[in-house]
Target: Histidinol-phosphate aminotransferase
Amino acid sequence: MEKLARKDVQALTPYMSARRLGGSGDVWLNANESPFNNEYTINGAGLNRYSTCQPEELIRAYAEYAGVRPEQVLTSRGADESIELLVRTFCETGEDSILFCPPTYGMYSISAETAGVARKTVPLTDFWQLNLPEIEKNLDTVKLVFVCSPNNPTGNLIDRNDIEALLEMTAGRALVVMDEAYIDFCPEASTVDLLVRYPNLAILRTLSKAFALAGLRCGFTLANQQIIQLMQKVIAPYPVPVPVTEIACQALNEAGLARMKYQVLDLNANRAYLQAGLSMLSGVEVFDGYGNYLLVKFPDAELLFSALWDHGIILRRSPIEGCIRISVGNREECEKTLTFIRQQLA
Model:
């Protein structure tokens, strides 16, 4: 059967999500999930009918939360589907390219590769910022430039002035796709206000992180109306299950938003606790993080990672040499992780 598959699929290495990597333990800080398991009620009525492609109540609720107009919002099965939709909408197979700046989220590459679209990379600078001169040199054939801020796995914010310079540079040539999966932990850094000035800007959002709904698979694209209309041409007929709409709307109502903001404050406090505690350890470098995770460099990261794994504390290996990415959990999980690391490095 394998030889019947497309050659690029045969050669593809799939994205290794936290669940695919597995593990066994009682502290799971490897997938940037929220530790809060919030309760929701599901009506269950109307499940015999197909869902609306773009449920009006959900679109309206997220538009109000994000500060945009409903016609600037598209909802999808997580932000991952948004990435795929953008590639399918704007890139011609065998002709166009995407560009992204590693180290960053791996699904940009996977989505392009599975669609037969070429990939260009311009690594981030030593300070994990955009290398604008090199990006400009590589824009030929590029239709989409993906930028993640806060960046996964580094955790840093991309310089606002550089983002605007990139938007100017790509005007009329390519879309800049800002991945804001973690922006709810630092909303003041969002680029949503730039939508008014730059028609070539698209923004990815999700309910998976700050809203503690990773299992719901509900994401959004924010962009000008023309981009949204084009994406609606290629999206599946019924992408949003009825229960997803029900739960997402509850998460976005007044009470749901208040709860999310309170939980974000709690997680940001836990991140600061982890950062302070790890920074006190000899030989350890903790990089500033603005999402619900921290990138940490250890003297022997692989040895420590294996010890944590065997002890039931499941973290995430980083592609950055000597580093481990640690998701921010509840205070008990953070304390247990920090205590074990202290013991190992003593």
About this structure: The chain has a mean pLDDT of 94. The first helix runs from residue 7 to 10. The first strand starts at residue 27 and ends at 28.
